[in-house]
Amino acid sequence: MSQEEVELVRRAVDAWNQRDPELWRSYATPDIEWTPAGPAAVEGTVYRGYDEVVAGLESVWQTWDEVFFEESEIRAVEGATLWFGRLKVRGASSHVELDQEFAVRFVLRGSKLASIQAFLSRGDALEASGLGG
Predict the structure, then answer these.
(1) Cα 50 to Cα 33: distance, rounded to the nearest angstrom
(2) Per-residue pLDDT at 60
(3) What is the band of 48 on the pLDDT scale with cuts at 50, 70, 90?
(4) Interatomic CA distance for residues 23 and 94, integer angstroms
(5) How far apart are CA 33 and CA 115, in angstroms?
(6) C-alpha span between 133 and 126 (Å, rounded)
């Protein structure tokens, strides 16, 4: 994993934290795929392409008044970069606060994000990457 890949992942996460879809989009390939965690994962939701991914991001931002990713580690795995940390959110209408372990598997192509798969635990991300739980 190069330092450039680490910085790209960090910039993309920061764009998410800033709720800046255009900045976030600048780090992605036009055919980006995002597989979210949580209820959307149970439903098998996959967002494809700029428009679908940005619409999905904006939907999350409407549901959650505050959404913040806090990094604890970034690790290279075969063909991907794993981001580990915490997701901190507060419901827009309920004001319920959650602090959840979170992991994201980023696949890059040509110095851009091509695939993003989110997980509610470090173990799930490691298992999905073929490294066991």
Answers:
(1) 9
(2) 82
(3) very high
(4) 29
(5) 5
(6) 6
